[in-house]
Write a structure and sequence with these properties.
alpha/beta; 10% strand
Length: 239
């Protein structure tokens, strides 16, 4: 009953390798289904959860939105903005501006972070209990870190390879693909830092890390298959 988690930057191969592994081991493949099930638990659309995990807005856009909203509030209040541009606001660090600049009226920000991560964790844990599954992304390796016998795989690939993959998969031009890949990777790092206090590139989080710049998806799937068989056998021996 192998349970395998695969995490890596967009374009580094988790989807392709995960699908191949599920075929090799004749087990289930789960990606966006995690969000679909989590959405049921907290009554939020799937798109909102995806946005919460992935959306990254440039600092200038966020700051501009914050300043615009602030000026509008001040104008309505008719008090020249003193409550919002009070003493010391110019000294706020950039990350504070970014938090303030978020639009609290958007559905993504109205989803409670604690409920979001608890619902996602519940779904991932239930999938692991059922066994025979490959789970892509979602921080499943952290959620299942203490579960014996679960195999955690980290993926990596050079930036240019990830850009090329995005161009082919999403029909982007090179500039669009580069922006897409870089922003989603920053979102992934932010997601892991915010919810789990770890860097997703930390090798200690995985049984094995695979560099897709060195091998193809078929070979990578074989590595994952062999690792899963070894970890599962060792787990049965210990038990």
């Amino acid at each position: 009953m192998p349970v395998i988690t695969i995490n890596g930057p967009v374009g580094s191969g988790p989807i392709e390798v995960g699908q191949r592994v599920s075929q090799l081991l004749h087990i289930n493949y789960v990606d966006r289904l995690v969000f679909a099930e989590a959405a049921k638990l907290i009554g939020s659309p799937v798109g909102v959860l995806i946005e919460k995990e992935q959306r990254v807005i440039g600092f200038r856009e966020k700051l501009g939105r914050f300043l615009q909203t602030t000026l509008e509030r001040s104008a309505v209040a008719g008090i020249s903005g003193e409550p919002y541009f009070g003493r010391g606001i110019e000294l706020l660090p950039a990350e504070t501006y970014i938090e303030l600049a978020g639009d609290p009226s958007t559905p993504a920000q109205m989803v409670n972070d604690k409920a979001f991560i608890e619902a996602t964790t519940n779904v991932v844990v239930d999938l692991a209990k059922s066994g025979d599954v490959v789970i892509i992304g979602r921080g499943a390796n952290i959620m299942l870190a203490d579960v014996p016998g679960v195999v955690h795989v980290g993926m990596w690939a050079p930036l240019e390879l990830r850009i090329q993959t995005a161009m082919e998969r999403e029909n982007f031009n090179e500039a669009q693909a580069r922006k897409y890949v870089e922003e989603l990777e920053q979102a992934r790092i932010t997601f892991f830092n915010k919810f789990f206090k770890v860097n997703p590139h930390d090798p200690s989080l995985y049984h094995v890390m695979i560099n897709m710049g060195k091998i193809n998806a078929e070979s990578a799937a074989d590595v994952v298959k062999q690792t899963a068989q070894m970890v599962t056998a060792n787990s049965m021996t210990v038990n």
